[in-house]
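WARN no homologs supplied; continuing
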Amino acid sequence: MTGPFRYTSPVPPKSATGVAADVYAQMSTDFGIERAPTFVVLSASPPLLTAAWALTRESLLAGQVSRTDKEVVAAGVSLANRCPFCVDAHTVLLHATGDHRLAETIARGEQPADPAHRRLLAWGKDMSTPRPFGPTAAPEHIGTALAFHFINRIVSALLTESMLPGGLQRIRAVRSAAGRSLARTVRRELVTGLSLPLLETEGEAPAWAVGTAVGTAYGALRTAAELGAGLLSEEDAAFVRQSVAAWDGVTPLPLHGAGLPDRAERPGARLALLAARAPYRITDEDVAAWLAPPFTDHCLVHLIAFGAICAMGRVEATLTLETKEHA
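OK structure emitted
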């Protein structure tokens, strides 16, 4: 399968069977995009595919919080993580909500005119700051933000930067037209929880989303992504976790020295750490150094997901600290 996939060859959605086919069918109805590369790239691992889709659906797509507000948060996260593919996607989806001026304001890197949107965009960029929303909205906003801390890293590592062929999304008229084509789907009210029967893993819901569909999906994703640690030695897995836990979330990862494992000696640890802290810096050489038999696409997706979930956990830990300080 060609297109935006850099290192994997996912089964084309039309040929999918089992739970992958079920996810694509639900995605077509609820997201409006049956073959979204963001999720197709995870299809080598049904547990990751189902959990990533469920967290996205239950936090961003369903629920009572304004879709526009959640798209602003997701755009802020994607800007902070330097993921142009995802920034473009959320610009298109903001057009789909009907907020055309807001979409183009964010696309230009400018501040929204609405103070509430400015606060949400700023919080998406730095979730350690006080939350600009109340406890009722917390599961959807936090779930959306953390979902895209995970997805941004998957996308930056495993997809090309261009959302549309030839970079057509850089043209305002194309962004607007793409958004309008999704408007009916984006503006529909979805029933919460319908993605949960698709899940193949379980996990503990976080304190900020206990008793919600978002919490169930989040626990499932964390469990599925942690499976990737088994591709590393215990020493390397611990090194990745410790490096990410000690990271401030801002300081660039040095490409030389003890902070980044050597490509020849510890290629798996290097890939996982790059996925967590600087996925846009992953090179063909980094992947080739590790991706050889017996490792497969399934393994690569899980290794990248392990780094991504470590980073997501680091952000969540900062969020927990913020809650204690500002409660």
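Residues 297-326 form the longest helix (30 residues).
OK
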